[in-house]
Amino acid sequence: MENKIAINPRYIYAVILFVAAGSIFWGIKNLFFFDEDVFVTAGNGDFLSHIWQRSLIVKLTFKADYLLWGANPYGYHLSSLFLHLINAVLAMWVLKELLKPVVKYFTQFQLTVIPVIFFTLFLFTPVHSEPLCYILARGGLVVSLFCLLSVMFFLRSQQENKILLGCSLLSFLLALFSYEISWLLPLIILSITVFLAYVKSEPFKKYIPVVVLYFLVFIAWFSIKVVFIDKLVVSDYNDGNLFKTGLLTLIKNNCVLFFRNFIPPFKNATVFAAVSAVFCLLLIFSFYKLFKQSKPQFYFLTLLLLITVLGFSSVTMLGIDSHDSESERYIYFSSSFAIMVLAVLLTVLIKNRIMLIGIVLVLAGL
């Protein structure tokens, strides 16, 4: 009985969602920033006139917003907040699905609390400030919606339900028409499949046909959309040098974006580097302690950390700038899994429940 909690988790989720929605929307400014009004209203500029080039579905959401709200920024921010709340619920469902194969390695209390902690941190984390405050950064919200749907349908299909697999592939295709972050989703599906085969002690070759479908969808889409229609124009930062980013820049961008999944930006780069170094040491120590404590839990967290990296790596290959808070649109999806890592680590390593709740409340309050 001591591993159970008395309050129905559904009520907890409802309260967290209500508080988050109110506090976040209160903090979002009711105005257009910089040149947002030029890009997202009345179809002005190249952003919407070349609607078939890059981020088709994201641009369609701006079209829909314009039809509903005109030049009133209130509605645009409300739409972005609504997408964030949906993504929080979807990501929480994905976490629960990922936990199902490893339930025997967690207590009932941990299985109940981990999604609640994730839900809280995901809604309130400051690394989501740009997609929520800057309307033009909505791409991170939209692509995450379809990527999370694809992963969730894939997990629920159990590799056999053809209808759910079809929904997963369709969601992946919609993600491809949303943002380049989705490019490595087949590798994420592959990673999850390898882990599931390991946990279930089943041969991986059994799942190969299903995994191949995701690679085929990407190859077909990339060949037609990117090569023939867009003429390899896929990035606002480095269009003329696709996949030619220097090695040092690539390493730097990957490192920065990885730590930005956990740490908000600082005005001083030295402070950010110092905080990142401390966090890295804590992360290594936590993973080492978990490896000694429970190898299945360690492998589960390793999967989540790998998905975190795959969730943003596609944009670093395109020469994406990782400066300041602008990188947050590129890590919104990957941060879903990064926060899952934090939720699991906090729950399994902190045995004192009062201390655990206190730490989560402090993090959310910050």
Helix content: over 70%
How would you name the oligomeric state of the polypeptide chains in this document? single chain
| Relative strand content | under 5%
Poorly predicted runs: none
Task: Please summarize the sheet with the most strands.
Answer: none
Mean pLDDT comes to 84
Number of strands: 0
Describe the protein in words:
- The chain is mainly alpha-helical and 366 residues long.
- It contains 16 helices and no strands.
- The radius of gyration is 20 Å and the shape is globular.
- The model has no long low-confidence stretch (mean pLDDT 84).
Give a quick rundown of the structure.
The chain has 366 residues and is mostly helical. 71% of the residues lie in helices and 0% in strands.
Please render the helix and strand layout as text.
Elements: H1 9-27, H2 36-40, H3 45-49, H4 56-69, H5 73-99, H6 108-124, H7 129-133, H8 139-157, H9 162-176, H10 185-199, H11 208-229, H12 247-260, H13 269-293, H14 295-316, H15 328-349, H16 353-365
Helix pairs in contact: 1-5, 1-6, 4-5, 5-6, 5-8, 6-15, 6-16, 8-9, 8-15, 9-11, 10-11, 10-14, 12-14, 13-14, 14-15
Top keywords for this entry?
366 residues, 16 helices, mainly alpha
